[in-house]
Write a structure and sequence with these properties.
Chain lengths: 377, 377
């Protein structure tokens, strides 16, 4: 218990957040977050929750009543979706083409699912024919889990055909939309998604700490009909529903100030308009892509997200040195490669408030200078 | 998807938080929380984590390396402690004398524990002889869980003798310190606590959203020796340790701004000094107790916490009306009774920044006026 060094208030350095999240947070959201805390059963707070739910429904493009923010980061959202939908022994198909599909498999196994994995090479997407074949081989599939926007590879997964196959087989579709919600097209109702989760620190440009989730009425019915309790008390949707619903039964103390931040972030989305926001993400992605390709960089995924750009580290370039210099000399954070892409990939996020032309311009100019230095090295 | 009402920024009302949590948050903590978000792998953020861990160790009065903040509210801390220590089929004794012991039983059952419950009437504490008898009856007890500060009843549970019994039986002691950490004496090392969890929104006067936890070296050894994976991926301490440790392996995106707030709250504790802070809580509790008893109110627990005061609603007084008038006319929040105390108890928290003389004075004066009105009703 070393009490020698007295602590001092933390002053974060100035950063341009172009990594895989968190993204830049708007001053309005920061300001909202710093407003005085009130009680989680205060009538004014309950009003805030109701309005946030309405805004989340617009964002997810759904009428699902069970659309809430789970009190944890995106991975808690993943776990909430899996442990509520899965009972021990249930068959679940998990599509794995990067870190987050792999994580979903791990979470499903820990929930007692009998997991069948469908794999695609990192950077590629899952082919609907793989899904069709799996649903052919196993007649007891309860849930298929898939990642819409794979943050580790930048791959953009089409979902509509897969959704049709999953529903034809009588199964439930669980979708990871952590890096797409609020930045790319995502249609929970129109695409027939039964459970969808995201995080606040990506395209919503809110600090990390909440996980927006949405469950279809059909999924809720399945959850209410479980014969075993949900293994997690904290993430049990049937209990959370009683707090978010009109009963207002105390479950756990909601992260009040994070909820202020999310509400303000959702307000900003509503002000901009979801379609305009998605178009902005597309436009800045194109600007970045042209610039990166001009610098000789190559995109990894065959079908790239607009929110996250994964490119190969050029031969002869020191991955870590470039990232360190970007951070130290320009205040720019980008992401390193994960897993098999370690040392091989850069992941450049243009999400939410970070998806802006001036950031693209600054980043390309900075990278150009550093790559010239690398070549001279 | 009703898009008619345009959202507006949320402006919380002015409140004096004298409920069971959240407590008033210092402007310095709010300011820290609103500072710009940086990345969860940023060297500056990692430095903040290291310093926060050191401050948490001082607060828990422990040298435990595995002392961290779990990314969820206090109940996530409870679940983290239980699911890491328990493997399916393990015998766990859970002491229940209020809501939170009951919750621990529920969490333990969902983790597959064979639970033995020791009960005491609400408001009373668990007698060490009950513990001794249970440990006599069952020779396979792995973990005993108990609530140090029962927020639903205001009862203050002594732990030292129980700890000795638990360790003599070769079991592990798991303690809920949600409402005591940072406000009352709590000695993780000296009392031999193996796993301890708390929340940020009580005596630390930080917004809710993080759960400080501490595991003894012995508990960590047990967790590392598990034969089954921890059922929760999100709360798996072995994975969290690799992010908090020198390896810095990415697990999930930490709630950055909540960590700023916690760091600032811990800084405030260090500035005040833990002993002085505990003395302040004792002093304001005494002031309140004298005032409440002067008003004819009766404390429920035989041994009261200094952080949370549970009193009986006097006969002929309308519980809900008084609480509503306190909120609407004075901006004061107090807590209602839970479970069997519904409509029967008021819970008045004096925690962290809310434990101040002027709040005690205001509350007693306001309550006195409202009780006079009730009697005239």
């Amino acid at each position: 218990m070393n009490e020698s060094r007295p602590p001092v208030s933390f002053q974060p350095p100035s950063r341009v957040l172009l990594g895989p999240g968190p993204s830049d947070v708007s001053p309005r959201v920061l300001q909202a977050m710093g407003r005085p805390t009130i009680g989680h059963l205060d009538p004014e707070y309950l009003r805030l929750m109701d309005e946030s739910r309405r805004l989340l429904q617009q964002l997810f493009r759904t009428e699902n009543e069970m659309t809430i923010a789970v009190s944890g980061t995106g991975s808690a959202g993943m776990e909430a979706c899996v442990v509520n939908l899965i009972e021990p022994g249930d068959r679940m198909v998990v599509c794995v083409n990067g870190v987050f599909g792999g994580r979903m498999k791990e979470v499903a196994e820990r929930a007692g699912a009998r997991v069948v994995t469908l794999e695609a090479p990192w950077g590629e997407t899952i082919d609907p024919q793989q899904v069709a074949a799996a649903l052919e081989s196993y007649d007891d599939v309860k849930v298929l889990g898939i990642v819409h926007a794979e943050t580790s590879t930048g791959a953009h997964q089409p979902l509509e055909e897969i959704s049709r196959l999953v529903h034809d087989a009588g199964a439930f579709l669980l979708v990871d939309a952590v890096t797409s919600l609020g930045g790319m097209e995502l249609e929970v109702d129109a695409w027939g998604i039964d459970a969808c989760y995201s995080g606040t620190q990506k395209c919503l440009s809110c600090p990390p700490g909440l996980a927006p989730v949405s469950f279809s009425a059909r999924a809720v019915e399945r959850i209410l009909g479980r014969t075993t309790p949900v293994q997690s008390w904290y993430l049990d949707v049937t209990l959370l529903a009683r707090y978010w619903g009109s009963e207002r039964v105390y479950h756990h103390t909601a992260p009040i100030n994070m909820s202020y931040a999310l509400h303000e972030a959702l307000t900003l989305v509503a002000e901009e308009g979801l379609a305009a926001r998605i178009a902005r993400h597309t436009e800045n992605h194109r600007r970045l892509r042209v610039g990166l390709e001009d610098l000789g960089l190559e995109y990894i995924p065959s079908r790239s997200l607009t929110t996250l750009n994964a490119v190969r580290v050029p031969d002869g370039v020191d991955d870590a040195r470039v990232r360190r210099r970007l951070l130290e000399e320009f205040g720019i954070e980008i992401g390193a490669g994960l897993g098999p892409f370690r040392g091989q990939a850069w992941r450049i996020g243009l999400m939410g408030a970070s998806s802006r032309r001036s950031h693209v311009t600054l980043f390309l100019a900075a990278l150009s200078q550093l790559l010239a230095d690398e070549r001279a090295h």
